[in-house]
Amino acid sequence: MDGKRTSGAGIKGAAAFGNPDNPYHTSHYVPDDGQEHDLHHVTYVPVYPRTILNRVKVPSLGFAYSLNPYQGCEHGCIYCYARPTHQYWDLGAGIDFERKIFYKPTSAQLLAATFRKKSYQPGTILMSGNTDCYQPLERHLRITRSLLEVFVRFRHPVSILTKNALIQRDMDLLRELKQWQLVSVTLSITSCNEALRRVMEPRTVSYARKLNLIQQLRDHDIPVGFIIGPIIPGLNDDQVFQIIKDAASAGAQWGHYTLLRLPDPLPALFEDWLVRFFPDRKSRVLKLLKEARQPLSGQGSYRSYVYGDGPLAHHIQSLFNTAIRKAGLKVEIPTLSFDHFQHGIPRLF
Questions:
Q1: Which residues on neighbouring strands pair with residue 225, listed in sequence order?
Q2: Of 62, 72, 89, 165, which is most buried, counting CB atoms within 10 Å of its CB?
Q3: Nearest Cα to Cα of residue 187 among 203, 170, 165, 156
């Protein structure tokens, strides 16, 4: 069937309603039965890459590598900029991204092998750069936990980004890493309004639970901050002050944000999502996004890629910085230590 967007009544429990066109396909299928499809069946596929680290080419980010033990994500965040990566697997960036999950069983072995190489240049590793390393499948596979055990064994720094409370399970390893100044944790927060959060990221933990997690991490002396990711003008930009105030009260030490960016084919997915959940706001949200980001994909300099450009984007940045200063928070993630890194330790794998 031809056409640029998916159709149908949507998929229960999913943020996306189908799959937009994949530019790597010569044809595509669009369901037209008008029925709501259930998101109970999720397919998990093991993959075996040769390497596990991705070099980050933007020094100002504060980390040298990213590590992704999973590709695709059951959290179902409609705004996720990683969705297009599923198209390289001959899959869709919509519902396929949420229910066809790739996992890397040999992640820990690959990381240990990398750390043993004489050519390896230590640098802070972000886990994860694309999809959440604590998404639901991790509860059973424990790949992220096995990676943390490697970080502990080699005493190598790691910075963790997540929006899932499953990280609580690994508090013992986080405390051990903290002894040598080897870990920081950033919690992703999108909204302090639960009704909005549930439709933006339908299978993540509540706002209250994220705040509680910040408090727990601080109680264990784990460096923790947050990122409002993303700010969407016309939807959650009015919540910036409240989120920062609440996160600071919970014990957060730093805060960041990103402005929504929509690489192809996310514009079609996002517009369909707005039609379903916020039809009265659709025109305004898209208008404000266009004002704050040209084009919507956020191409250009790194700064405009993250924060947008133009008067509206600058206003949001000023608002955020004012709230951060008022809360007494920093914007920099603490520097981690490489003083204890060990190359040549015995093999366990």
A1: 186
A2: 72
A3: 165
CA angle in degrees (0–180, nearest 5) for 267-268-270: 65
Q: Do 223 and 186 meet the contact criterion of CB atoms below 8 Å apart?
A: no
**Each residue of 148-184: pLDDT tens digit?**
999 999 999 999 999 999 999 999 999 999 999 999 9
Question: Three-state DSSP class for 51?
Answer: coil
**Exposed / middle / buried, residue 307 (Cβ in 10 Å: 0-12, 13-18, 19+):** buried
Enter the tokens of residue 239: 């919540």
Cβ atoms of residues 28 and 1 within 8 Å: yes
Tell me: domain 11-32+43-327, CATH 3.40.50.1000, correct? no
Q: Per the structure block, which two tokens stand in for 334?
A: 């603490």
Q: Roughly what angle, to the nearest 10 degrees, separates helices 311-327 and 282-292?
A: 90
pTM for the structure as a whole: 0.87
Q: DSSP letters along 134-168, please?
A: TSTTHHHH-HHHHHHHHHHHHT--EEEEES-GGGG
- SS3 helix, strand, coil % of the chain, rounded to 5? 40, 15, 45
Residue type, 185: V
Distance CA 71, CA 154 (A): 25
Give the span between the Cα atoms of 308 and 311, in whole angstroms.
10
Whether residue 296 contacts residue 290, with contact meaning beta carbons closer than 8 Å, is answered with yes
Helices (H), the chain: 95-99, 107-116, 138-141, 143-154, 171-179, 194-200, 207-219, 240-250, 266-277, 282-292, 302-307, 311-327
**Matching residue, tokens 């059973």:** 140
Task: Say if strands 65-67 and 53-55 run parallel, antiparallel, or are unpaired.
Answer: antiparallel
CB 247 within 8 A of CB 226: yes
pLDDT digits (tens, 9 = 90+) for 290-325: 999 876 665 667 788 889 998 999 999 999 999 999
**Pick from 264, 203, 200, 199: which is nearest to 230 by CA?**
200
What burial class does residue 57 get, using C-beta atoms within 10 Å of its C-beta: 0-12 exposed, 13-18 middle, 19+ buried? exposed
